[in-house]
Structures are given as structure tokens and as C-alpha cells.
């Protein structure tokens, strides 16, 4: 989307850049993942630490390298493919290591507050146009409504009850992490590469709406999940486990 919005080259390359970046990201991600299957070698001590460092380094290289090569779409795809294929290979080779995931969870605990603080710092409440807030709320309402309805419908083919499908739809209501991660991308692009005043304003509007989505849906969604979970979900256990109680609420 950024490539289309801020396109400066030939139209045909602008159109092909997105799919080309995705294909390149997938292919490079698979190659990097195959390397991770065999590195470090099995006799190496502290293999989980080396695995974490290798995955983290390759992911950082992918993100920064894709920006350097002006193929921004390939970086995130490469990282996702790398992690998925590497984990799949470790499982098949019997070299899975839970400590790798534990290291990433620890890193996420550190960087998550920084991520949300960074996007919050982009907002100037005093300079925010009230019209942006109004239209942003309307856009969020429409988007969340379609999101909840779609989440309820797409799981109808699975073996869920109506109450369970309703809870799934509610659980998909919160929006925070993705908005914090990419909400400022358009504004950053304008600030780094230059742009017209209207492009700067639009970038600021995107950031404002992203922050609104975080502030509104994250706490409301957490409360809704906590309140509706015990009331909408049931867990069936065997009679041997429960005695005379064949069903309990969880």
C-alpha cells in the first residue's frame, strides 16, 4: 500500500513490486530457515541461545535489508516464513527447543512497552483535528462490526456451538499490537522521503486512528473476554473425571 501511495517510478513496476517482494521474501525465508535447521550443529552447547541469536539476526537483516533495497514488503514476509519453516524443520528433525520461544517471550516483554510508547509519542492531542476523531470513530465502528460478524461466520463449519462462535468473535475484537507496529509507517515514510503537506496530514491521521483503535478496543476487548469467557464456554470432561457432573463451566 505504501508503494502504491508514494509511487514515483513506472506504474508497471509499482504494481509488480508487492507480489515480487512477497515471492522474494518467501523464497529467502525458506533458504534462511533451512540453514537454521542445521545451525548450530547438534554437539554445540547452549544450542537454544545460538538458535535465538541466529533467528534474531537473520530477521533483523531481513527487515533492514528490505528497506535498504526498497522492497519493504519482502522483509516481514521473510521473517514470518523463516520462523514458520525453521520451527517446522526443528519439529521434524527432533531438535525442538522450548527455550528459543522463551527467549522471544522475554524479548517481547521488554520491547512491547517501547512499541506502544513510541506510537503514543507520535500523537499531539492539541493539534488533532476533531473531524479526524469523529471519522476515525466511525471507521473503527464499521470495521469492528464487520470483523466481529466475519469472525462469527467463518467458524460456522467447525464443531463449535453458537455460544463458542460468539466468544471467538468477541475475542477478535481487540486491536492493538498490529496497530502499534505499523500504524506510523505511512507517517515515517513521508518524514523520511519527503512529501506534500496533504500526505503528512494523512500520515498523522493514520497514526491518530491507530492509537484510537488501541485505546478503545484493547481494554474493552480484555474486559469482554474476561466477562464472557466463563459464561459462553463449556468444557466437556469424562464422567470418570467429574463423577456425577458430566459438564462444567470453565
From TrEMBL:
Pfam families: Na_H_Exchanger. GO terms for cellular component: membrane. It is a multi-pass membrane protein. It is found in: Membrane. It comes from the Eukaryota. One of its GO terms (molecular function) is antiporter activity. The chain crosses the membrane at residues 20-40, 52-69, 75-94, 106-127, 133-154, 207-227. Residues 22-221 form the Cation/H+ exchanger transmembrane domain. The keyword Transmembrane helix applies. One of its GO terms (biological process) is proton transmembrane transport. InterPro entries: Cation/H_exchanger_TM, CPA1_transporter. Keywords: Membrane, Transmembrane, Transmembrane helix. Belongs to the monovalent cation:proton antiporter 1 (CPA1) transporter (TC 2.A.36) family. PANTHER family: CATION_H+ EXCHANGER DOMAIN-CONTAINING PROTEIN (PTHR31102:SF1), PTHR31102. This is Cation/H+ exchanger transmembrane domain-containing protein. It comes from Cherax quadricarinatus.
Amino acid at each position: 500500500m505504501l508503494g502504491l501511495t508514494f509511487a514515483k517510478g513506472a506504474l508497471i513496476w509499482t504494481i509488480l513490486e508487492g507480489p515480487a517482494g512477497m515471492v522474494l521474501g518467501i523464497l529467502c525465508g525458506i533458504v534462511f530457515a533451512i540453514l537454521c535447521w542445521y545451525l548450530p550443529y547438534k554437539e554445540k552447547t547452549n544450542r537454544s541461545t545460538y538458535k535465538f541469536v541466529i533467528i534474531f539476526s537473520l530477521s533483523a537483516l531481513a527487515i533492514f535489508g528490505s528497506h535498504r533495497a526498497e522492497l519493504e514488503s519482502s522483509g516481514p514476509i521473510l521473517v514470518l516464513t523463516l520462523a514458520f519453516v525453521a520451527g517446522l524443520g526443528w519439529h521434524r528433525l527432533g531438535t525442538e527447543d522450548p527455550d528459543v520461544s522463551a527467549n522471544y517471550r522475554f524479548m517481547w516483554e521488554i520491547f512491547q512497552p517501547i512499541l506502544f510508547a513510541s506510537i503514543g509519542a507520535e500523537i499531539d492531542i492539541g493539534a488533532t483535528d476533531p473531524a479526524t476523531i469523529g471519522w476515525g470513530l466511525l471507521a473503527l465502528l464499521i470495521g469492528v462490526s464487520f470483523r466481529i460478524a466475519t469472525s462469527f461466520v467463518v467458524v460456522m463449519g467447525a464443531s463449535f456451538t453458537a455460544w463458542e462462535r460468539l466468544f471467538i468473535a468477541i475475542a477478535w475484537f481487540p486491536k492493538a499490537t498490529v496497530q502499534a507496529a505499523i500504524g506510523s509507517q505511512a507517517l515515517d515514510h513521508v518524514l523520511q522521503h519527503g512529501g506534500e503537506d496533504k500526505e503528512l496530514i494523512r500520515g498523522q491521521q493514520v497514526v491518530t486512528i491507530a492509537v484510537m483503535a488501541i485505546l478503545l478496543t484493547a481494554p474493552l476487548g480484555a474486559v469482554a473476554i474476561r466477562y464472557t469467557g466463563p459464561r459462553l464456554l463449556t468444557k466437556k470432561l469424562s464422567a470418570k473425571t467429574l463423577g456425577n457432573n458430566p459438564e462444567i463451566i470453565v
